[in-house]
Write a structure and sequence with these properties.
62% strand; mainly beta
Length: 120
């Protein structure tokens, strides 16, 4: 079983910055892609950014140039640096990781979510 624990959310004014972290633990053999998703009230969950084990990144158009995803493979941790935040970035942010467990079973795990609120 693989667990993801997020931290770093909070309340910030428009134009401000926040850094989210997500640490994976448990029966991990390897982690392939890690990513961040978000879900605003009454909206579907949407992709924010992903990063492969080799460091290739992908971003939603709405966050390009403002958000940066990175990871520390030694710590099984992914980060999301969010700059120039806008009220429309307000959402619950979820971390996701895909990989293989020590039992050689594929996994796709989600964190519990962390609230990000941007005031205008």
């Amino acid at each position: 079983q693989v667990q993801l624990v997020e931290s770093g959310g909070g309340l910030v004014q428009a134009g401000g910055s926040l850094r989210l972290s997500c640490a994976a633990s448990g029966s991990i053999f390897s982690i392939n892609a890690m990513g961040w998703y978000r879900q605003a009230p009454e909206k579907q969950r949407e992709l924010v950014a992903t990063i492969s084990s080799g460091g290739s990144t992908n971003y939603a158009d709405s966050v390009k140039g403002r958000f940066t995803i990175s990871r520390d493979n030694a710590k099984n941790t992914v980060y999301l640096q969010m700059n120039s935040l806008k009220p429309e970035d307000t959402a619950v942010y979820y971390c996701n990781a895909n990989g293989r467990s020590r039992f050689l079973a594929d996994f796709s795990s989600w964190g519990q979510g962390t609230q990000v609120t941007v005031s205008s």
